[in-house]
Amino acid sequence: PSPPHHHPLSSVWRCHATGLTPPPRSSCRTNRGLGGAPFPAARYFPTVVYYAATGKIYVIGGFDASFTEANQTWEYDPVANTWNTTRANIPVAMAGSATSIVGQYIYLAGSFNDANASTLHYRYDIVANSWATRAAVPVPVFQAVGGAIGGKTYLAGGGNPAEASQRAQTGPPGTAVPGAPTTSYNTTYIYDIASDSWANGPN
After folding, report:
1. Distance (Å, rounded) from C-alpha 84 to C-alpha 187?
2. pLDDT tens-digit series, residues 120-152
């Protein structure tokens, strides 16, 4: 089960040793951290992706401070320590998505979807600043793990969000907090980028 209290992310820690983000400062090699510019707004379970070609970090979707799924795309520049909030939004709000990056493309698969999970699958083109739908995930999933090797992305685990009677747990006073999946999956799905199609992987 999830811990009883959750706090949305609202700040970035920059590693003093590398000048990049965002492991907690305690994991920096020098054990020192520099406070980065605060997030434009608080987020919980967002997608966070580092794009090596430009050194920028992208914070996409997640739950906002009222624990409603959001659709923003924010770009953080660790060198300038500034946020760009003018990037194209996801066509639909998504939180708890599996994430991978291949070249200039960020892939998001699955989401909370009002405690129903989803088969949503979107690709963000960082260079063109545009979103496109991709083949739907084979099953509705929330909080799966994403990764990429070569021309394929991988989606492993995750699960279905809590049942209706358990959809929220108590966080800070008066706040309903979406919980972790109540049923976990041991499945792996493999997405082929060239053919825009999914195949089953090993459990």
Report:
1. 36
2. 999 999 999 999 999 999 999 998 999 999 999
Per-residue buried b or exposed e for 160-184, using 16+ beta carbons within 10 Å of the residue's own CB: bbbeeeebebebeeeeebbbbbeee
Which residue in the block uniquely carries the two structure tokens 């000048």? 19
Q: φ, ψ for residue 4 (rounded to 5)?
A: -70, -15
CA atoms within 13 A on the CB side of 127: 7
Give the DSSP letter of residue 189.
E
* DSSP 8-state symbol, 119: -
Amino acid at site 2: S
Q: Which two tokens stand for residue 178?
A: 């979406």
Summarize pLDDT for 19-32 with one digit per residue, the tens. Answer: 333 433 333 333 33
C-alpha distances (whole Å) from 13 to each of 45, 50, 55, 81, 181 are 17, 14, 15, 10, 28
Q: Specify the residue for token string 């965002």.
A: 22
Bridge partners of 109, per DSSP, are 98, 121
> pLDDT tens for residues 43-89?
988 999 999 999 999 999 999 988 899 999 999 999 999 999 999 99
Concatenating the DSSP letter of every residue in 9-25 gives: B---EEETTTS---S-G
Q: ∠ CA(75), CA(78), CA(82), 5° rounding? A: 60
